[in-house]
Design a protein that fits this description.
Function: Ferredoxins are iron-sulfur proteins that transfer electrons in a wide variety of metabolic reactions.
Distance between the termini: 28 Å
Cofactor: [4Fe-4S] cluster
InterPro entries: 4Fe4S_Fe-S-bd, DUF362, PSI_iron-sulfur_center
Protein name: Ferredoxin
Strand content: 15-25%
Mean pLDDT: 94
Pfam families: DUF362, Fer4_7
Number of strands: 16
Largest sheet: 8 strands, mixed
């Protein structure tokens, strides 16, 4: 199989240029102009950031991409789907308020914002998954599927379940309606280690489904209510909650790949990853920790699989940031060194299965040629 082309530019911005201009140059060199945008409605999938988190992509980057789309004759809009977990983006009203609070609006980005799965996360399209093994029909936010062209603009960072959140995570999980997110998450359901639990109740505050109760000061999870979203796993400061289904993370990765294929199949698509502010966890958290790695740069490709692989390789070539969670884990000699920054950050996570499965079902190619844009 011929190597896919991934284009890269660093974050140096000498006098006479700036990062938005460098991003525009990158995506033009990567071939975005080969897409026929004329009068085409173009979905730019982005994460607007949970309020309180400051590592999400600035609106300036979204505007840079939207301006290129308009220059090429397209009609861009920024979009995301509602979340499954408790937070400020669970319905369209709160989601839009969160986006505005974080600086996203028509003046700052040059285009409108549409929450793709509607007011309550129920406006979805049922999309067949060609080659799907776990998902035969994906539930995707309708506005995303109604678009003529699809662009992903992703913040590449760590993630507590998938190892990292990049292009495929932004597409597969991010474009799923609330029911689609439940379908991707529900193969594995966490359990509480009663000996470790301190009864702080932070986990229950992060459960949107009333699945966590307390007896004698210890949490327990009702699996008949739990949807397996993993928010309690990320919320627990004492590692008292774990996933006892060892295959669940791999199944989640596979479903993300299959949902991603449903989104991009049959229409033009283009993908951008920004490896900056590499926080250990997802931008869905209402906080962000010290970056685990230095800023690397901006990447773009027509191939979402090659794009994520290139970014993962670039990250693993870096040294951990001093004072970060990653450095803390690396220095802890009681922990196993996995020789992978994302797995060392969150040992319960797993990322290679997603890319392996995505390649298997024809979504893209893990072999790539990296082309630097100066």
């Amino acid at each position: 199989m011929e190597k896919s082309k991934v284009y890269f530019t660093d974050l140096r911005a000498l006098p006479g240029t700036n990062l938005p201009k460098k991003l525009q140059k990158l995506i033009k060199k990567a071939g975005i102009g080969e897409i026929d945008f004329e009068k085409k409605m173009t979905a730019i999938k982005i994460h607007f950031g949970e309020p309180g988190n400051l590592s999400f992509l600035r609106p300036n980057y979204a505007k840079a991409v939207a301006d290129v789309v308009k220059e090429l004759g397209g009609r861009p809009f920024l979009t995301d789907c509602n979340t499954l977990y408790v937070g400020r983006r669970k319905d369209a009203l709160e989601h839009l308020s969160a986006a505005y609070e974080n600086g996203f609006n028509i003046l700052s980005t040059g285009c409108h914002i549409i929450i793709a799965d509607g007011l309550k996360g129920t406006d979805e399209a049922y999309v067949p998954v060609k080659g799907g093994e776990l998902v035969k029909e994906a539930k995707i936010g309708r506005a995303i599927m109604d678009a003529d062209v699809f662009i992903s603009l992703s913040h590449f960072k760590g993630h507590e379940a998938t190892g990292f959140g990049g292009c495929l995570k932004n597409i597969g999980m991010g474009c799923g309606s609330r029911a689609g997110k439940m379908e991707q998450h529900n193969s594995g359901k966490p359990t509480v280690d009663q000996e470790i639990c301190v009864g702080c109740k932070v986990c229950s505050k992060n459960c949107a489904h009333g699945a966590i109760s307390f007896q004698e000061g210890k949490a327990s999870i009702d699996h008949s209510r739990c949807v397996g979203c993993g928010r309690c796993l990320g919320a627990c400061n004492f590692d008292a909650i774990y996933n006892e289904n060892s295959s669940a993370v791999k199944e989640l990765d596979m479903k993300i790949a299959e949902y991603s294929k449903a989104v991009v199949d049959g229409r033009p698509s283009f993908h951008i990853n920004l490896v900056i502010d590499v926080s250990p966890y997802c931008d869905c958290h209402p906080e962000n920790d010290v970056p685990i790695l230095p800023d690397v740069g901006m990447f773009a490709s027509f191939d979402p699989v090659a794009l994520d692989q290139a970014c993962a390789d670039a990250c693993n070539a870096q040294q951990p940031m001093p004072g970060s969670l990653l450095e803390e884990h690396v220095k802890d000699h009681s922990r196993c060194d996995h020789h992978d920054h994302f797995i060392n950050t969150t040992p319960e996570s797993e990322w290679e299965t997603c890319l392996e499965h995505a390649q298997k079902i024809g979504l893209g190619n893990r072999n790539y040629e990296l082309i630097q844009v100066l």
